[in-house]
UniProtKB/TrEMBL annotation:
SUPFAM superfamilies: MFS general substrate transporter (SSF103473). It comes from Tetradesmus obliquus (Green alga). It holds the Pfam family MFS_1. It is found in: Membrane. Signal peptide: none annotated. Gene3D superfamilies: MFS general substrate transporter like domains. This is Major facilitator superfamily (MFS) profile domain-containing protein. Keywords: Membrane, Transmembrane, Transmembrane helix. Coiled coil: none annotated.
């Protein structure tokens, strides 16, 4: 079981990670406008560039964190964050703003924190502990836009400088206080002990092979586990819908409702509060009462209804009312699917399967901003919301098609292996 002090450190640094990221992210449309570029197209391209880099970085980070542990990836992530936000603060042209996104290639603190928790927690407690990491991220997500909006009254650059300082603080906390870990090596020692015991009983058990970092074969091996392809397909459908919504939300707030950068930040803070509510109050009791599979199906159904309602919003209070179920359902589906993915593979491959999930999300976010801004400009926001509802409906139908036998069977096999 993960130690309480270690969990507190992971939650604290995850909070700082989200706080710094969300303090500056909602202000990028305003910074693009200030630098004299065409806002919608440039913003979509900037977000797609960021997501493309995250896609590549996720595939690199998964085997890395399995082989060398989460602490190393946390250090790299916060160093990358500090570099990105420093370059954002000093950007004086659009191309410099694009260059600042290069540092986000290895910005994967959430993956590192999730891997540490997964490697040191029993399967039946994993969803709840991952929920704590998610709640910490949600708190930063909630407070970051508000803090960034307030700092933007000084200047847009002041927000980026504050985010850089917060990243340096988190880097120091991880480097000095967080214990070293190496999940895959711990698992290999456990497997080696089992093989030694088998050999003493006269059975020849092959010794575990050393994992190759950045191996395509290791990524392919993870996908071959029963249940993983189906779960990733569900993540793809629901993830694309949420990515399209998220990539167009700041533009919706600015254009349709005419809110300032400060009010935009407050609106995103409200969304963050909804996410924290879901992580802290909804996920654990609901998943224990009805099961993770049923909870994901219910979340998908609620997402479909929320997106349909979102497309018909005309007043700000209507938008606020729709955002609560949308945020709660979205984070419930995403968190529980991650927990189910980690149960479908051996613990030593947990980082890799979560990296595949995050790289899938990054790949979707590469196309989502361009797709979302194009639909918004050509057909209006109701078309964006309707498309999101259709995508989540496809995820729900996929859930109903695969049933729960495949994943539950693989989860049971994994629990037996870990006992």
């Amino acid at each position: 079981m993960v130690a309480r002090g270690q969990l507190v450190l992971l939650c604290s640094t995850t909070f700082l990670y989200a706080l710094c990221f969300m303090a500056q992210a909602p202000l990028l449309p305003y910074m693009i406008d200030k630098l004299g570029a065409k806002e919608s197209n440039t913003y979509g391209l900037l977000m797609s560039t960021f997501s493309g880099l995250q896609l590549v970085g996720s595939l690199l980070s998964g085997p890395l964190v399995d082989a060398y542990g989460g602490k190393l990836l946390l250090i790299i992530s916060f160093a990358s964050s500090a570099a990105c936000y420093t370059m954002t603060a000093t950007a004086s042209s659009i191309w410099m703003l694009f260059v600042s996104r290069l540092a986000t290639l290895m910005q994967h603190a959430v993956l590192a924190a999730r891997t540490i928790v997964t490697a040191q927690s029993p399967a039946d407690e994993r969803a709840a502990l991952l929920g704590y990491i998610g709640a910490s991220y949600g708190c930063g997500f909630a407070l970051g836009p508000a803090a960034g909006g307030l700092l933007s009254s000084i200047s847009l650059q002041a927000t980026a400088w504050a985010a850089a300082a917060g990243s340096v603080l988190a880097l120091g906390i991880v480097a000095l206080l967080l214990p070293a870990d190496s999940p895959s090596k711990q698992q290999q020692r456990k497997e080696h002990s089992t093989s030694s015991s088998g050999s003493s009983n006269g059975a020849a058990v092959p010794a575990p092979q050393q994992q190759r970092v950045f191996s395509i074969a290791s990524l392919a091996a993870v996908v071959q586990h029963p249940g993983v392809p189906s779960l990733l397909l569900v993540q793809a459908c629901s993830g694309l819908a949420q990515s399209v919504f998220q990539s167009t939300f700041s533009l919706l707030i600015k254009k349709q409702y005419g809110l300032s950068s400060k009010a935009n930040g407050m609106m995103l803070s409200y969304v963050g509060c909804c996410i924290v509510f879901a992580q802290a109050v909804v996920i654990k009791p609901v998943s224990k009462r009805v099961g993770e599979t049923a909870a994901v199906r219910g979340g998908c159904g609620l997402l479909v209804l929320s997106f349909l309602a979102l497309g018909s919003c005309r007043e700000l209070w209507q938008l606020l009312a729709c955002l609560l179920p949308l945020a709660v359902a979205g984070v419930t589906v995403a968190t529980l699917n991650v927990a189910r993915l980690t149960k479908a593979v051996p613990t030593s491959q947990a980082g890799t399967v979560m990296a595949l999930d995050m790289s899938l999300g990054s790949g979707l976010r590469t196309v989502a901003p361009l797709l979302g801004t194009w639909m918004m400009q050509r057909y209006g926001y109701p078309a964006v919301a309707g498309s999101c509802a259709a995508l989540v409906l496809a995820a729900l139908l996929q859930q109903l098609a695969i049933g729960r036998q495949e994943v539950d069977a693989s989860s049971g096999q994994q629990e037996k292996k870990e006992q």
